[in-house]
Design a protein that fits this description.
By secondary structure, the protein is α/β, with parallel strands linked by helices. It has helices at residues 50-58, 85-96, 98-122, 139-158, 178-199, 219-242, 262-276, 289-304; strands at 5-8, 12-17, 20-25, 28-31, 39-43, 46-48, 63-66, 72-76, 252-254, 258-260, 279-282, 285-288. The chain has eight helices and twelve strands.
Length: 317
């Protein structure tokens, strides 16, 4: 937990008494430091009272829900507090303009490829030929090119992973092995991190460019998360597995699929938060990775407002 992000990793119920919000579970009753919470993650089976939701709405705090198998369930997204009619109108126009939509969508695939290549170099995985994303004339062509890159990326990752943590092939519902369980959980964290940051910008989370808006409610999060998943998901998988920081027995549950245990989730959350709060120097200023995600969203806003062409983040640290 940081002063901004609070994780509940156990089953329980969130309830409110007077002005205090409590987590009630088998271990007792615990007050939440609501004044310090900017985003809440609820990972586990439980419930949230209406009064708690009203208080989180009043304080503009998003809640992201996961089930006890670490699957992302959905989010409680308070009413947008920084709504800008001009930005939303321009976002919709950019989506409806096929030429402009393709241009923006290609930026996300280019950004993803750049950071995948950076990870390949950092971990000596080998190279992946760069597709010509700019020659794509449809969203389907862009998605296919990116899909081919990720397929090759997973093969290269597997060549460096211990046998207990190989991905083999990407499977989500349910994950069939530990590598897939780790990636699925970390990808969900990356997606919800981006969704949380979008909430504090003028962008509308449901209007996207690479992914179809009806595919998921917050599809813009899927677009932007493509750029950061290599840095926050695959990178952590490689590091934690190779440093033997995850226990194949204690940190996982094998039942109708392979899932992270509560102990495993806590380990991944700790490492994920440390990665997000890592300090990076950019133009003589220090930024955390979380701040770089927010900065990425501001860059998209500027493009939509035709102030500056959007260029996706390329990792250098």
């Amino acid at each position: 937990m940081t002063d901004e992000v609070f994780y509940i990793t156990t089953d329980g119920k969130l309830m409110m008494k007077n002005t205090t919000i409590y987590l009630v579970n088998k271990d007792g009753k615990f007050a939440l430091p609501i004044e310090k919470i900017k985003v809440l993650y609820f990972l586990g089976s439980g419930s949230v009272s209406t009064s708690v939701l009203k208080e989180f709405k009043r304080r503009n705090i998003p809640i992201h829900f996961f089930d006890r198998n670490s699957n992302y369930v959905g989010s409680f997204y308070p009413k947008e507090s920084l709504v800008s009619g001009e930005v939303i109108v321009r976002q919709v126009k950019a989506y409806l303009d096929q030429t402009r939509r393709i241009r923006l969508a290609s930026k996300f695939t280019i950004g993803a490829f750049q950071n995948i290549s950076w990870i390949c170099n950092r971990f000596n995985l080998g190279g992946i030929p760069e597709p010509n994303f700019n020659e794509a004339t449809t969203i389907e062509q862009l998605m296919q090119k990116e899909g081919n890159v990720r397929k090759k990326f997973y093969e290269l990752i597997d060549s460096k992973l211990p046998s207990d943590f190989k991905i083999e092939r990407r499977e989500i519902m349910p994950p069939s092995n530990r590598g897939n369980a780790i990636l699925s959980f970390l990808n969900s964290l990356a997606y919800t991190t981006v969704a949380s940051e979008i909430y504090f910008t003028h962008l509308h989370p449901a209007i996207s460019f690479l992914h179809e808006p009806f595919e998921r409610r917050y599809s813009l999060s899927l677009d932007v998360a493509e750029i950061f998943k290599p840095l926050l998901s695959e990178r952590l998988l490689l590091r934690l597995a190779n440093l033997k920081m995850l226990d194949p027995i204690v940190d996982f549950i094998d039942k109708d699929g392979v899932f992270l245990s509560e102990i495993g989730r806590k380990k991944l959350i700790k490492e994920y938060e440390e990665e997000l709060n890592k300090t990076i120097k950019l133009k003589n200023k220090n930024y955390t990775v979380r701040q770089l995600i927010r900065n990425e969203l501001y860059k998209i806003e500027k493009d939509l407002l035709e102030l500056e062409e959007y260029r996706p983040l390329k990792a250098w640290w």
